[in-house]
Amino acid sequence: MGERMHDIRLSVNGVPHAATVPARRLLSDCLRHDLGLTGTHVGCEHGVCGACTVLVDGRPARSCLMLAVGAEGHELTTVEGLADPGGPLHPVQQAFRECHGLQCGFCTPGFLTLIAAYLEEHPDPTEAEAREAVAGNLCRCTGYTNIVAAVLRAAELRRAGPAAVPEPAVPAEERP
């Protein structure tokens, strides 16, 4: 006898979705495989690296540690939902671009969602606070210097308002 399936409804990036999943389907797998939102990356599958970080009701959560059925009734935001398609980049995306906050890009979606939530509650972080804020996500490439600079730059861009973030020069599907 096969595993029991569950019909779930998820609100992801402001869009309602329906999926039929086994009870043990991880949210990260549901987002990637069932909904086709592949911006959420899965690294360690143990909640350690942070690559799978998404926002659940505006708060960062490791989607590899959460079951998809447990996400029903919550508002989810993935990296794809940080900026409107065809619109300006989110300040964190723009700051990562300006400050060269990524190299291979694998960890980037988790950093972007984490930092976006962090800046909602801490709009003017110091360098030490920015470093502490990103310490829970792992990057094997950058050494964090440019990521911390991107946090500080994103805070500046947010304070300056939407006019400070230029229209994207790259198509939405190629954004970090």
State the secondary-structure class.
Answer: alpha+beta
Helix content: 25-40%
Uncertain segments are: none
Number of domains: 2
**Biggest sheet strand line-up:** 2-1-5-3-4
Q: What is the top-level CATH class of the largest domain?
A: Alpha Beta
Supply the CATH architecture of the largest domain: Roll
How does the overall form come out from the CA principal axes?
Answer: globular
In CATH terms, the superfamily of the largest domain is Beta-grasp domain
Largest sheet: 5 strands, mixed
Q: How far do the termini sit from each other?
A: 42 Å
In short:
The chain has 176 residues and is an alpha+beta fold. 31% of the residues lie in helices and 15% in strands.
Structural commentary:
This protein is α+β, with helices and mostly antiparallel strands and 176 residues long. It has two domains: 5-81, Beta-grasp domain (Ubiquitin-like (UB roll), Roll); 91-162, DNA polymerase, domain 1 (Orthogonal Bundle). 31% of the residues lie in helices and 15% in strands. It contains five helices and five strands. It has helices at residues 27-34, 91-99, 108-121, 127-134, 145-160; strands at residues 5-12, 15-22, 53-56, 59-62, 75-77. It has a five-stranded mixed beta sheet with strand order 2-1-5-3-4, with helices on both faces. The protein starts with a strand and ends in a 16-residue tail after the last helix. 47% of the residues are buried. The model has no long low-confidence stretch (mean pLDDT 92).
